[in-house]
Structure formats: C-alpha cells, structure tokens
Design brief:
Blueprint lengths: L2 H9 L3 E7 L3 H13 L3 E4 L15 E2 L3 H5 L3 H17 L4 E10 L4 H16 L8 E4 H7 L10 E10 L1 H14 L3 E3 L2 E9 L2 E9 L5 E11 L5 H8 L7 E12 L8 E4 L8 E6 L2 E5 L3 E3 L10 H14 L11 E10 L14 E5 L5 E5 L5 H16 L25 E3 L2 E4 H10 L5 H8 L2 H4 L1 H19 L3 H16 L7
Parallel strand pairs: 1-2, 1-10, 2-7, 4-12, 10-18
Antiparallel strand pairs: 3-6, 4-6, 5-6, 8-9, 9-10, 11-14, 11-15, 11-16, 12-13, 13-14, 17-18, 19-20
Bound molecules: flavin-adenine dinucleotide.
C-alpha cells in the first residue's frame, strides 16, 4: 500500500467497477468482497482505516447474548455463523474466550443457564463449546477478583474476541492482494454526475494536498455514522436515516481481572449488558449506550459514562478500581438504523440497512463488526446488479484473510509498559499505510487504548521514526507530537 503508487493508480483515469467511501469494517468488507470476485475497486477513507467506530468497539465476535433477551434469534444465529467463518478465515486475529455470568439472585443461574443453552443450540456445529452451570467455588476460580458477598454461582459460556483495528488493516491488505486500490486520509467532498446519475467522486488528499477525481460504475456510501452527510449531498431532501448512540470503555490493569475468563453482567442498573474482558494484559470494561445529538469523529466518553462504568466495575470486583487506576478511556458511536422518531436507542435495531438514493448512491449502514462479511456480500450483490456488471459468486465465506508476520523481538521496545517494538512502527509506515503518529499509536499498535499516558510518552520517538521513513522535517515531528499528545490527554479518566 505505497501511497505514491496508490495515488498514481487513482489518478490514471480508470473507471472502477465500484468506488467505496469509508474505510471502516463495512467499507473494507465491501472492498475485499468485490475485489475477490474480480471487480475493479477503489476505496477512499477520510481519516485512517478503522479511525471511526471500527477501532472503538468492545472487540467481541459474538452472537450477542443481549439480542437473545430481545428475542432477535435470527440476528443471533446469523452472527454466530459469521463468528465461525471469521475464526476460520482469520485465526491469527480471533480467539475463543470464556465468559462467566456471576449469579447473585436466587433464580439468576437457572434463568441465564437456560438462555445460554439456546445460544449453544443456535450456534449448532459452530458452537465453541457447551455452556456450563458453575458452583460458587468454580465461579470464584474463573473470576479471581469477583465480589464474593452474596455470590451463589455462575454460568459459563463461550464467545470470541478479536482486535478490531488489526482486522481492519488485515482487510485493507487482503483487498489490496486482490487488486483493490485503497487510500486513507482522502476525504470525499462532492459527487461527479452525468445527468442525475452519480458517476464518481471528488476527494481531497489530506496528506499531500490536492484534489482527486475518481470515477466508478457504482458508488457505495459506507461511512457509518456519517452516511447522512453524503446522502444529503446526493439529495438535499433526503431524510436522516441513522441515530447515534455512544458507548464508552475503561481500560484497567490486568490485576483487576486475573485469569483467563471474561465477566459478563447481563443487566446493569439501566438494563444494559456490561463486560469486563481480559484484553492484551489489560481489562476492558464496557460499554454504555448513550444517545448523542449527532455524529462525532473523535467522540469523548462523558463524565457520567465513566462514572457508571467505574461504579459497576466496583460493584462486581472485590478489589475496587479507583479513577487513578484507569489507564485509558475510549468511546465509539454506533450508527443505529432509525426506528420511530421517539424510540430509545437501546431498542433501535442493531441490524444493518441498505438503500439506494435518487442519484444511484448505494448506502449501507448499521450492523456490527461480527456481521461485516455478510453485509458486504449483500452490498456487492446489489452493486453489481445496479451497475449492470456480470454477476459473480461471493467467495468470502471461505476466503482466508492476509496473515501477518510476527515482528521478531530484537529491536528497541517502545515503552516498558507497552508490548510493542520500534520495528512495528517501521512496518506500519512501510507496509500498512500508517501516515501519522496517531495511526501508529492508536490503530497499528493499540498503545493509546492500552495506556494513554505511556502512549503519549512514545509520541516523540514514533514521530522521529516516521520522519525518517517519510523524509519529514522537524516542524512536522513537532506538529505530530503536539497533536497526538493533545489527543492522548482526552483518553485520561475525566475529572468530574
Ligand atoms: C461502543 C461500541 C462497541 C461495539 N462493540 C462491538 C463488538 O464488540 N462486536 C461487534 O461485532 N460490533 C461492535 N460494535 C459495532 C461495530 O463497531 C460497528 O458496527 C462497525 O465498526 C461499523 O463500521 P462502519 O464501517 O460502518 O463505520 P466506521 O467504522 O465509522 O467507518 C466509517 C468510515 O467512513 C469514513 N468517512 C466518513 N465520511 C467520509 C468521507 N466524506 N470521505 C471518506 N471517508 C469518510 C470515516 O472516517 C470512518 O472511518 C460496537 C460499536 C460501538 C460503538
């Protein structure tokens, strides 16, 4: 993914079969699918790949136990099927994880035990193992720091965990392997049209400056929470199609949940599901579900979201975390397909929607990471029909994704409390399209999410390495460090 080469390709005047706007889970999935079928594909991403919602998820590949409670068995079954496929196609990015629901009430164990038997049945042959009823002692063995007062037992079930930003880069590389042309830091500003029909886009290269005109037989709007902005450019009369709901996470040191199992709280005070999950030698606690007035490209966790998460973590953990224990706080925004105007976000659909506007713009939004492949299959089927392309079967159910070669620990470690090496920064710059310190510290590595303070301390060294790689000057280094450190400060636990 050499940027100069990619820009040359995009400027060569080729009319692509498909042009995808947005390089999150959805857009990257579409690019992989279409390129693997043999269509020509370009993708433009305004920021970095997965810089939006797709790097800010809870990082679970799951059927969604919460949807069981809502009775949405079809969605659960579909997601479980996709979970199995992803684990097969990207085994280096997905791992099985045991989840334990602690039971404090008299009927909790039986109630959740029965629900999870249904979850096992829906997974069928793709089940990762049967759910189990646990005694109080077994529950405490799985969850070493669980609050013991009133604990009666628990239920264990199996799901899977993945690294969202790494999967996004893997999809970008896989799409490139199949001939797609992908560019990050390139914002689509306007559409090109012939008559009423959209035939391409005008974009801006946010790294090198300059405009970019790219033509395609079909344009796909996969911009997540931002889809309505482009729909309004297509048709000023278009009605908003998504609501925005925010979810925050806290990252704690691993001592708050030692052991291999995750903790799942099926019902918090306000009826939400809450997880505490072992993640890369840390514990990820989340998430919330807070309606927001509109999309935000750098959403911040609200003070009350952080307080809610910490309060619930303290309720279920014996050794209570304090605000100063929190290593990082991050938030993401869900694009929820709109229901009734007054519907609460918790009850809006998590499923996706696909629509076609009057200029022919195909918009896809909603869904979840777990179902990105299926969404892409539906989008490319429809895109091919709309563009009059010869139909080609979708190969992605069994398509292996690019395997990454592990970095040999030999180069300097970036920071004593972070598991990354300088060689990973160089690889990110040379092979993974990272352009900025933030791309490296937030998504190629996960430093910012693992420890915002330590990530901030790494910024000068990372900027210096990138400057060497890209031939940048000291002013560029200083600006990159300033900008990243200002961002990292917003990942600290907010003062109430
Ligand atoms: C808190 C939270 C937790 C979640 N947890 C899970 C989970 O555990 N498991 C799971 O399966 N799912 C989870 N999800 C859902 C999942 O993360 C999302 O469904 C998915 O990431 C959405 O991807 P997307 O590509 O549609 O959107 P995005 O990732 O937001 O991508 C859209 C992209 O479009 C780009 N863009 C916008 N405008 C333009 C433009 N004009 N030109 C070019 N590019 C543009 C943006 O920069 C952005 O990168 C979670 C979501 C949230 C919010």
């Amino acid at each position: 993914m050499n940027r100069a080469y990619t820009l040359d390709n995009l400027r060569a005047g080729e009319v692509f079969d498909l042009l995808v706007i947005g390089g999150g889970a959805t857009g990257l999935g579409v690019a992989v699918d279409a390129a693997a079928r043999g269509y020509t594909v370009a993708l433009l991403e305004r920021g970095d790949f997965a810089g939006g919602t797709s790097s800010r998820s809870t990082k679970l590949v799951h059927g969604g136990v919460r949807y069981l409670r809502q009775g949405d068995l079809k969605l659960v079954r579909t997601a479980l099927l996709e979970r199995g496929r992803l684990a097969r196609n990207a085994p280096h990015l997905v791992r099985d994880l045991d989840f334990v629901i602690p039971a404090y009430g008299f009927t909790d164990r039986t109630f959740y035990g029965l629900g999870l038997k249904l979850y096992d049945t829906l997974a069928g042959p793709l089940s990762l193992g049967p759910s189990l009823m646990l005694s109080r002692a077994e529950t405490m063995e799985h969850l070493l720091n669980i609050e013991p007062a009133g604990l009666r037992g628990g239920v264990l079930y199996h799901d899977a965990q993945f690294d969202d930003a790494r999967l996004a880069v893997t999809l970008a590389l896989t799409a490139t392997d199949h001939g797609a042309v992908l560019l990050n830091h390139a914002e689509v500003l306007e559409f090109a049209r012939e008559g009423d029909r959209i035939t391409g886009v005008l974009a801006r290269d946010r790294i090198g400056g300059g405009g970019l005109m790219v033509h395609a037989r079909q344009v796909v709007n996969a911009t997540g929470i931002f889809v309505d902005g482009l729909r309004a450019i297509e048709d000023p009369a278009a009605r908003p199609s998504v609501s925005v709901s925010q979810g925050a996470h806290l990252v704690l040191p691993r001592r708050f949940l030692p052991g291999a199992s995750a903790l799942m709280v099926p019902k918090t005070d306000d009826g939400r599901v809450l997880f505490a999950i072992p993640w890369r030698d840390r514990v990820l606690v989340g998430t919330t579900d807070t309606a927001r007035p509109g999309p935000d490209s750098e959403p911040r966790a609200l003070v009350e979201e952080c307080a809610f998460l910490l309060e619930h973590a303290r309720r279920y953990l014996a050794d209570d975390p304090a605000p100063e224990d929190v290593l990082s706080v991050f938030a993401g925004q869900r694009p929820l397909v709109r229901g009734e105007p007054k519907a609460e976000t918790k009850s809006l659909s998590r499923d996706h929607s696909i629509s076609v506007g009057p200029g022919g713009l195909l918009t896809v939004t909603g869904g979840k990471w777990t179902t990105y492949r299926l969404m892409a299959e539906e989008v490319v089927d429809l895109a091919a029909r709309l563009a009059g392309l010869p139909p080609k079967p979708c190969p992605t159910a069994d398509l292996p994704l690019r395997a990454s070669i592990p970095i040999r620990p030999g180069s300097e470690i970036l920071h004593p409390s972070l598991p990354y090496f300088e060689a990973e920064v160089r690889r990110a710059a040379r092979e993974e399209a990272a352009q900025t310190v933030e791309d490296v510290l937030s998504r190629r590595t996960r430093c910012l999410l693992l420890d915002a303070h330590a990530a901030s301390a790494c910024a000068p060294r990372v900027a210096a390495i990138l400057a060497e790689e890209f031939g940048r000057n000291e002013a560029w280094v200083a600006a990159q460090v300033r900008s990243f450190q200002a961002l990292a400060a917003t990942y600290a636990f907010p003062e109430g």
